[in-house]
Amino acid sequence: MKKIKIATILPYKENYTFSKAQAAALWVSHFFKYTKFKDTNFIYGNTNTKDYLTKNYFDIKIYNKSSRFRSTTSEYCNNFIKSSKLFFDIIEIHNRPLVFSYLKKELNSKFILYFHNDPLQMKGSKKTKERLMLINRVDKIIFISKWVRSRFFKDINDNLINKTAVVYHSIDKEKKIYKKEKNIVFVGKLNRSKGYDIYGEAIIRILNKFKNWNSFSIGDELKNKENFNHERHEELGFKKHKDVLNFLRKSEIAVIPSRWEEPFGRTALEASSRACATIVSNRGGLPETTAHSIILKELNSNQLFHSIKKLIENNKLRKSLQKKGFSNVQHDLKKNSMLIDDIRVELTTNYRLNISRNKLRIINIYNLGQKLNHRLYNISLGKKFTNGFIRNNHDVLEISDRDFIRQNKLLLYPNPQSKFQEYLLESFKNYNPDLVFFGHSNNINSNTVSDLKKINNNIIISQWNEDPVMPSLEYSKSNIKNIAQHNEYVDHNFITTDPKIFIKKNTEIKNLNFFFVPVDPNIECYNVSKLKPSNDLFYAMSHGVNRATLKRGKIDGRVIFLDKLIENIPDIKYDFYGYKDREPIWGDSFYNALINSKMGLNLSRGLPTKYYTSNRIASLMGNGLLTFVDKKTKLNDFFSNKEIINYTDISDLSEKILFYKKNDKARIKIANNGRLKYFKLFNETKVAKYIIDISLGKNAKLI
Questions:
Q1: Does domain 361-514 have CATH number 3.40.50.2000?
Q2: Which pTM was predicted?
Q3: pLDDT tens, 513-531?
C-alpha cells in the first residue's frame, strides 16, 4: 500500500482534548482509530491543555487570537506551514474554507475540505461565487450529511457533485444492551436553539405524571441558558464523551428537540446505537442519523410530551426502537473509515479503477462514420480500439462527435457544437468513466476537457492520432496543432510516428507514446497467401477519407512515384485506386479488390519517416499480401526481411516486385510470416492493453 502523508487541520477554536472535545475533534479522533494511514496521518490544531485525544496531534501556537489588526487565520496557516516541515500528499481541512483559500496558494498538495456546518453560515462559503470557487479548486469536498451538501449547492448547479461525498459521523457498534434505568436524557447546549426550553416544559409534565421516571440533561451554556426545576430532574453539566456514552447506555429514552437546523445530530446517532428510544425534531440532518427514531411532526412541548408519554406507556414500542437502533447502526465507524481511506487513495492515484469489477469504464470518442454509411469500418482505428478494450474485459461507451453535430444541424439547433459539449458532459456524469479516450476530434472544446477534470479529478484522458508528423509535409503543422490543443488537460498522447520527431521539433506536447496500427481478426479476416489472386500489385489512396472521390488536378509525391514505377515495370498487373482517373475504393469493395492482388505497396504521404505508415498497412499485411515498405521508415525494427520487403529506392522496389511476381513460393512464405508476426505483435487486444497500461501510469512496452 502506498504511504500517503496526510495533514488534518482542525479549526483553531476546536479543542482536540478529552476534556473539551466537540463534534469536529471527535470526528477526527474516531476516524483515526481505523485508518490505514496511522503512521502518516498528523493532526494539527490549537489547544490549551495537554490531554490530547490521540498521540499524532501537533499543537499550533497562536499569539494574536484577540487582535483586531492581524488575521488569526493567516497566523494559524503560516504557523502550520512553519511547524510541519513536511510535504503532505493530502491536506484535510475541517470546517474552514478560508484556511483552504490561504493554503492552496502556498502548498502543492491535494486538498479535502470537510463541512461540519451549514456552508451558507461560514466565512469563505456564504456567497455563491465562493462556493463555485471551492467546488472548482478543492479536490474533494466531504459533507457530514445530505442536508449540509444541499445547502452548499443552493443556487449553484450540481454538475460537479461527483467531486463531493457524504460521510456521516459514525460510531462503533455495541456488543450488548446494558441494563436500563428509567432515565430520560437530553444532551446538548442548554439553550432555546437546541430546544432545551421545549424539553423543560414537556419533561415537567412527564415527571409529574410518571413518578418512577427521572430526567437528566448533559451539557452547559454560558450565555442564554434555559432554566427549569423539578425534584427528579438533574443538570449534570459538561461531560467527557465516554461518560456521555456510558450514561446513554443505561438510559431508556433520549430527546433531541433542536430548533436549530442541525448539520447532523451526533447525539441522536449515539443514543440510538446505545439502545435508547430516541426522539428527534425534523430539522437539518437529524432525520439522517438513524432509521429507528420518533420524528416530531410539530416542534412544541405538547407534541414532545405525547411522544415521550407514548414511549413510557407502550413498553413494546420502546423496546422495539431500542433493539432496532442497537442492531442496525446506520453509520458504522469501520465502514466509513474505509470510505475515507478510499477517497484518500483515489486522490493520490493516477487513475480510479472501477473496484467493484476490477475493470475500467471507457468513453471512446471518434468518428463512427454514420454520415459515410460506415464505409470506413475497415480502416477505423476507433472501432479497433473499442474491440480491443472490450476483449480486455472493459466496458466501452462510444460517442461519435461528428455524427452528433451533423444530426443536430439537421434538427436546426442554432449551435450544435455547443449542444455536443452539453451532451458529452452529461454523458460523462451519467456513465462516470475511468478513462476518456479520443482521436481526431476538433469538436471537443478545451473548456469541456477541463470540466471533465473538475467533475472527476482522477479521470484519465488519453488522445490518439494516426496522422503523420514529418518535416516534408505541410499538413503535419496543423496535425501537431490538433494534438497540442488539449495539452494542458490530456494525460497521455499516442501517435504513429516515432515520438523523437516531436522532440526534434521542440514541441511541448507531453507524455508522447508510439503505437502501431493494430490488426483485428474480425476485420483483417482474409489470407491472400492461401488464395489465387489475378493481379500483382495493389495500392489505394484517397484525397481525404471524408471526401471519398478524386480531387481533379491534385498531384502529390505519391502520384509521381507511381508514375515512375509503372514506367519502370509496365508489364505488372497493377490495381491502383485514387490514381489517374480511377476513384478511391471503400468498405467491402476495398476488400474485394485487395484480396485479388498478390502484393501490396505501403506508400505514405511525404518523405519516409521513422515508424510512420498509412493505416492501410494493417489491411495489406493483416490480409496476407506481400508488403513493400521504404527502408527509411525503420519498420525492420519490428519485421525482418522474412516478413516484409524493404526497398531503398524506386529501382530497388521495381526489381523486387518483378522477382516476387515470378517466385510465388517465396512470396507466399514471406507474406504469411508477415501476417502471423503482425497479429502476434500488434493485434487489437494487445495494442488496447498497451494503451490502457500506459494510461494507468504503468511502465508498459509495445513489444
A1: yes
A2: 0.56
A3: 999 999 999 999 999 988 9
